[in-house]
Amino acid sequence: MYNLITEPYFNFTSIQESMNEILFEEYQFQAALRINGGSLSAHRYFQENNSELCCIVVDSGFSFTHIVPYCRGRKMKDGICRINVGGKLLTNHLKEIISYRQLHVMDETYVINQVKEDVCYVSQDFYKDMGIAQLKGEENLVMRDYVLPDFSAIKKGFCKPREEMNFTGKYKTGEQILRLTNERFAVPEMLFHPADIGIQEMGLPEAIVNSINKMPEEMQPHFFKNIILTGGNTLFPGFRDRVYKDVRALAPTEFQVSVLQPQNPICYAWEGGKLLAENPDFEEMVVTREDYEENGHIICEEKFDV
Question: What family does this belong to (predicted)?
Answer without folding.
Answer: Belongs to the actin family. ARP6 subfamily.
